[in-house]
Amino acid sequence: MSIGIAILGLAVLVLMHEAGHFFTARAVGMRPRRFYIGFPPALVKKKRKGIEYGIGAIPLGGYVKIPGMHRPAPSDLDVFFGAALVEAPSLVGPVERVKRLVERGEFQAARGELPELERAVKSARLSPRTRRSAERGLAEVGDALAPDAYWRQRTWKRLAVIFAGPATNLVFAVVLLAVVYMIGVPVDASRRVARVSPTLAGKVSPAAKAGLKPGDVVIGVDFQAKLNFKEVAKAIRSSDGRPIVLNVVRDGVAHVIGPLRAHKTNGYYAVGFEPAGIRYRSYGPFGALKLASEDTWTWTKAIGSSLGRVVSGSGRKEVSGPVGIVKASSQAAKTDYRDYLQVLALISLSLALLNLLPFLPLDGGHMAFSVIEGIRGRAVARTVYERASAVGLAIVALLFIVGLSNDIGRLGGG
């Protein structure tokens, strides 16, 4: 159940990201061609005012198609109509006319030739696979030549549409945290142990392994007296996983529990016990929003620092893949819905910041090229886009592989 909730939460974050692109594109006059809940192929779809709405077969987030992300090139027609030209030589004339006009930059004239090319495709004798490719080519080239194509828009419109996705995730993170503050956050608790968790971060919890028991009162850490639960928690979290001992009173007798090593879970170190008598404090909307914004900024700096360590090689183990993200979310969902909302907010913020990295095909890469093209006053060559995309995809794939290997290592206890 908790894993399902975690997957659903991640899917909602991706869907909201795509919705940000979709609604902003509509607002600035770039009519998206498709908007799916989930990823294609479509299980159900309906076209309304030129936009195809649907429910995809892959229920992970959403999908939006914005027309003409790149300036059209003659090679586009070669890709889509290559096989059709072999099967139906009668298409050579219409295809070549469009290609020549595209090569000369006469896009309005090229768009005017598309109806003739469409008629020629309809009357040509083509195999089903080749026909699908040609029809897709007509749609793709038509979108790229359309007045509302992305590449033809002013720089500010392009930046607005692309930035809207990460911005939606960023705003959602702040809102989630504000909701948690309004519901109420723990401000203190008794030092008495109410429950010892059997597992933590997929392993036997340090507290359970060391023999901590419900009813124990934690009076110190590493023989340093702690007057309240805040001080106990701070000492455990600042241990950074090094061996520590807990000083407890059990049935009126002092005991030393440990040494034990705290495990890192949900971004902080813990040993796996819940205190009794937790007190909560709720905040009003403005106070909650202020605290949520401060937390978001703190997390942003921490994520930025973590990315820097990944580049230097020292932070490789900090990267998580989809399995790790779902696992962390499901663990939080098992404990407290506040923890789950906080983890979801952190994931939403991470998605926003990751997508702002200046590499294609990430949003940050599209924004960087939009700025470059705005400064140059003309489009960047398609070959430059393709090379930059290849480099960006390699970087993203490397991060995915590192995250997935870390997930597998954690699942295996490594």
The main pleated sheet reads as: 4 strands, antiparallel
Unreliable stretches, pLDDT < 50, 5 or more residues? none
Number of domain units: 3
What string gives the helices and strands in order? Answer: HEEHHHHHEEEEHEEHEEEEEEHHHHH
Count the beta strands: 14
Number of helices: 13
Assign the structural class, choosing from mainly alpha, mainly beta, alpha/beta, alpha+beta, or little secondary structure: alpha+beta
Evaluate the radius of gyration: 28 Å
What coarse outline follows from CA principal-axis ratios? elongated
Instruction: Give the strand content.
Output: 15-25%
Gap between N and C termini: 26 Å
> Mean of the pLDDT scores?
84
Describe what you observe in this structure.
The chain is built from 13 helices and 14 strands. It is an alpha+beta fold and 414 residues long. It has three domains: 74-145, no CATH class; 186-281, Roll (Pdz3 Domain); 285-411, no CATH class. The strands form six sheets. A four-stranded antiparallel beta sheet has the order 8-7-9-10. A two-stranded antiparallel ribbon has the order 1-2. The chain has a two-stranded antiparallel sheet with strand order 3-14. A hairpin with a 2-residue loop joins β11 (263-265) and β12 (268-270). The longest helix is centred in the C-terminal third of the chain and has 30 residues, at 382-411. The mean pLDDT is 84.
Write the layout of secondary structure elements.
Elements: H1 2-27, E1 34-48, E2 51-65, H2 74-87, H3 92-103, H4 107-123, H5 128-145, H6 155-183, E3 185-188, E4 193-196, E5 199-200, E6 203-204, H7 206-210, E7 217-221, E8 224-225, H8 229-237, E9 243-250, E10 253-261, E11 263-265, E12 268-270, E13 273-275, E14 279-281, H9 285-312, H10 322-335, H11 337-355, H12 363-376, H13 382-411
Antiparallel strand pairs: 1-2, 3-14, 4-13, 5-6, 7-8, 7-9, 9-10, 11-12
Helix pairs in contact: 1-6, 1-10, 1-11, 2-3, 2-5, 3-4, 4-5, 6-9, 6-11, 6-12, 9-11, 10-11
